[in-house]
């Protein structure tokens, strides 16, 4: 009986009760991660969004975000995301692997929809630094989906790059004080992604002049909606940095 009770308690602890946040900059602890709304472009549109933590277990998280936005179809309205609390502060030259897995699905979506589903990885010259801050040197995006004809920052500089079992087009351009490098899937939506992010880091060090002395300051995954409406479910996400 004691063993059964302990097992039940562990099961409860491993599976978080669904918790929804709806404020513009609300955040919620999510096990090894932090779930944030980040409706930073809200003023450019009309609509709303909420995000719900569904469960956590070890290094894995499941969550959902539901959004509806209108007006200014070329403006991002938000980046609801999860950020790993400790997968950061590692220098690219010291990284041996960065395994990640992301299974996601649009439960509902309008037609048309303008949105991406993406990694947003931040690097800088120091181990610590907030995303999109004066400490940022590079923003590395990996678009697993980009619908409605949207485009990343800058311009496309290379196409047909084979990495992590898929083919990518690379975009580059400046944003504030950092450079944005965006790998956009040329294979359509990748809803079941298993990869080593080190492949992407190695590529930009070898081909885009990014110094291997850069530190990973944050790894976020989420969605940038422009216009339309959708319910995006992350069934399972995990990431780690090994050195």
UniProtKB/TrEMBL annotation:
Keyword Lyase: no
GO BP term, pick one: polysaccharide catabolic process
Keyword list, A-Z: Carbohydrate metabolism, Glycosidase, Hydrolase, Polysaccharide degradation, Signal
Gene Ontology molecular-function annotations: cellulase activity
SUPFAM superfamilies: Concanavalin A-like lectins/glucanases (SSF49899)
One matching Pfam family: Glyco_hydro_12
Signal peptide start and end residues: 1-18
Similarity annotation: Belongs to the glycosyl hydrolase 12 (cellulase H) family.
Name of the protein this chain belongs to: Uncharacterized protein
Provenance organism: Trametes cubensis
